[in-house]
Structure formats: C-alpha cells, structure tokens
Amino acid sequence: MLRKIFHNERELRSGWRLVLFFLLIFALGYAAMKGMQRMVLPDGLHPVSVGVFDAVMLVVALIATAIMGHFEHRRLAAYGIPPVRQLFGRLFWAGVVWGLVMPSTIILLIFLAGGYHVHGLNVTGSGLLKFAGLWLLANVLIGLSEEITFRGYFLYTLADGIGFWPAAMLNAIGFGALHYYTKPNERWEDWVAVTLITIFVTLAIRRTGNLSFAIGMHAAFDFMFIYVFSGMNGGEFATGRLLNAEFPGSIRVTGGLLGPEASWFCLLVAITAIILLHFTYRQAKWPVLAND
Question: Residue 167's closest CA among 218, 126, 220, 205?
C-alpha cells in the first residue's frame, strides 16, 4: 500500500517528483540569493541587475533539472531542453519573429487609439549601443531562465501526472498568478494577459517539440516592450530604454503602470496569436511521456 502511494507502475509518482524538484529549486535558489547579496548591482529596472538575476536562476533551473534527469534516467531533451546548437536554431528564430510581431501589433493598436507618443531617443551615442546590447542579453537570459524553470521539467512532469492540457492550463494560470502576486501595481488585466501568452507558449512547445521557439519568442517579446517601445514594467521604465515614450490615456488602452502587456489590446493580440499558431503548427510533438 505504501509503495502505491509513492510509486506507479514505472517510477516515483509525478507529484512526488515535482516536490523534489521544487525543493531543489528552493535550496539552490536560496543559496544563490545569499551569494548575490554580496554583489553590488544597479537599482531599478537595469539590464545588469535583470541579467545577473536571470543568469543565476537559469543555472539553478538547469542544475535542478539535470539532477532530476539523472535519477529518472532521462536526458534534458526529454524535458524540452535541446542541445545548444538546436536551441538557437531555426525554431528559436521563428519564435523571435512571433515575439517581434506581437508587441509591434499591440503598440500599433495603442498608437491608433491615441495612447502612444514618442518624443525622440532616450539614449544616444555609445550609450545607445551599450544598453541595446545589455538589454538584448538580459532578455535572452529572461527567456532561457523562465522557460526552463516554469516549463521544461515542471510542465513535463505535471503533464505526466494529469495530462498535457490540464497541466498547460494550470501552468498558465499559475504563471499569471505569480506575476499578479509578486509584482507591484498589478491588475487583473496583467494576470489574464500573462495567462494567455503562456497558453500561446505552451501550445508552441507542444507543437514544435521543444523549448527553442518559446525561448526565442519570450526573449523578443520582452525586449520589444521593455527596451524598443520603452513601456513601463511593474511601474518602472527600463534604465537605458531606447525611446522617450509617453503612454497617455486610459489604462485599458495603454496598460498604465504595468506597461503595454496589461493593455486590452494585448489580450486581443494574444488570443489571435494562439489561433494563428494552432493553424501554423498542426502536429503535437511534445512531451513524449512514458505512459503515452
């Protein structure tokens, strides 16, 4: 009886494996944060601070995933993490294209509604090149760390227990809740927007076969909103953002302190993107579960 509580016919039940994964993430993350306290990092929404944090969390997620994979006798690819050459291959760049087009469409709609004005460059000269490079790197690290931490092993193992789409919906709602309860100035629109974008991401993982597309899309999406279009994020403008941009008008149009991601136009674009992605990539390829 006790064995049935902890084991199915194949291995440790998925729920217990997730508990072990979370314990590893917590323990490794706690140790990493203690180490980071000794570092002097810039205040505010700065690319160096963001990049260092996400680089550390990426290492934590990879170590935790590798440890679980060792005991489960699975390679990282089983959890959707391909080799580096494939990680930044064709699917990554396809994701980048979607991650460029979606924010651009949202900003265009906000502009047409009178909610976006640009008053020139925010940074010029060598500073422009420096911050463009720093924010590009920081957003690639965001895409890597968040997709590998919150999709990857977590989504694979949850799907092994309850099925892919229940796991994907729980992942999406939970990721939206994480934003809502941990970021300042949150409203329901951001929760819904993050949930819809995560559904888009999980559908992409399901149909493309690994995390590459999702990482590219995530990195480009955040880069466009935070740096290129220079919107707010959590009530702050990014240090070194490209444009001196203004977002006047209703928060339903502009997103207010949360930035364009919380605009109602983002909800519309995210739903449209999910439909288009469904018809672009038709075949389910991931995860390949032991009980499939």
Answer: 205
What is the Cα 54 distance to its own chain's centre?
A: 11
Token pair in block for residue 142: 């965001």
Show me where the domains of the chain are located. Answer: 2-280
Secondary structure class of 117 (helix, strand, coil):
strand
pLDDT digit string, tens, across residues 85-113: 899 999 999 999 999 999 999 999 999 99
**How far is 126 from 290, CA to CA, in rounded Å?**
53
Write the burial class of residue 235 (CB in 10 Å: 0-12 exposed, 13-18 middle, 19+ buried): middle
Cα separation, 191 vs 175, in Å, equals: 8
Contact 219, 96 (CB under 8 A): yes
- Asked if residues 54 and 138 have their Cβ atoms less than 8 Å apart, the reply is yes
Place of tokens 């449209």: 272
Question: By three-state DSSP, how is residue 185 classified?
Answer: coil
DSSP 131-142: HHHHHHHHHHHH
